[in-house]
Amino acid sequence: EKGNYRHFMLKEIYEQPVVVAQTLQSYVRPLEGKVALPDIEFDLSEIRRVTIVACGTSYYAGMVAKYWFEQFARVPVDLDVASEFRYRQPVMEEGGLALFISQSGETADTLAALRYAREAGQIIGAVVNVPTSSMAREADLLLPTHAGPEIGVASTKAFTCQLAVLAALATNLARAKGELTAEEEQEIVEHLTEAPAALNAALSFDGEIEKMAPLIAPARDVLYLGRGPDFPMALEGALKLKEISYIHAEGYAAGEMKHGPIALIDDLVPVIVLAPSGPLFEKTVSNMQEVQARGGKIVLISDRKGLDAASHGVMATIEVPAVHPLIAPMVYAVPVQLLAYHVAVTKGTDVDQPRNLAKSVTVE
Ligand code: F6R
């Protein structure tokens, strides 16, 4: 039931603080200051390589996880979309962890990729939202998301719950690899515990995002830029916009702009910049300024400090709370979801049932 919401998508966007809290409950022990996974029958410290495979939005969650696993746990990660992975005859050393991420747990290409990895002697992990699904049944290590049924075709709450589980897994892996002290883990637990409140804070800017939707709705093309874990969030923002508003949108690593796409920039192409304050902020902002210098119209998404430092001359800003890097992608998901939603509503498209798309892609 949609309740008071006009669309399932909006309802599901608003459910995120609750379902992320629900999901984290199975992975975080706040009183002990520890992150805990379900019983595992293998030693995480022996994992030498992680392979992550998924499709669409779930793939972008995996891409965020690659940054985390490498940065925090210092474990090398291979990442691919399932439709490529399953046919490119990937080389896998036995005993690696292969991780499959899927809301439905039934996506045909991801399931085929899982079976390939099983044949190749991998330990199979699955981050899935449907506990009775094929992927859930076939996994050695089942890491459920507790997002509840997702009805809107565009994935929203399942995605943020995937990020929550992957943040917990990154923390566990980092501890197993000796890359994390007990104090650091305790600190991460505190940040994870605050994630639902941060999501609520991000939702509180909904009214402002709604007001700026008419600035984006007439565009034919929109670019999204980000660096580090915000690069996959730029890809996710672009995917959300194109699938429900039918506006052509591309996500780019901010530093790649000058290698081609900047040729597209004129005052008709809005550029959405995701730039949390932190070590990469200055770099992203300088890419943003290159776009501004060519007449590009910027929407800057950042925290208060970032907005104060870099809003000069931008078309619009969206504020999000300042949070730990393990929480930031969840928090940045909210404005890109809301922006896509309000632009689609402004254009009058069918938000919950976009043309040509199915909720579960069980054929390849
Ligand atoms: C985009 C979207 C799709 C799915 C993709 C994978 O909003 O929903 O890109 O993420 O079809 O589906 P699952 O996660 O069920 O494997």
UniProtKB/TrEMBL annotation:
Keyword DNA-binding: no
Coiled-coil regions listed: none
One Gene Ontology biological process: carbohydrate metabolic process
Enzyme class at the top of the EC tree: transferase
GO cellular component: cytosol
Domain of life: Bacteria
Catalytic activity: D-fructose 6-phosphate + L-glutamine = D-glucosamine 6-phosphate + L-glutamate
UniProt-annotated location(s): Cytoplasm
Residues passing through the membrane, by range: none
EC id: 2.6.1.16
Active site residues of this protein: 359 (for fru-6p isomerization activity)
One annotated GO molecular function: glutamine-fructose-6-phosphate transaminase (isomerizing) activity
Keywords: Aminotransferase, Cytoplasm, Glutamine amidotransferase, Repeat, Transferase
Domain SIS residues, every copy: 40-179, 212-354
Functional note: Catalyzes the first step in hexosamine metabolism, converting fructose-6P into glucosamine-6P using glutamine as a nitrogen source.
Quaternary organization: Homodimer.
Protein name (record): Glutamine--fructose-6-phosphate aminotransferase [isomerizing]
Organism, as annotated: Alterisphingorhabdus coralli
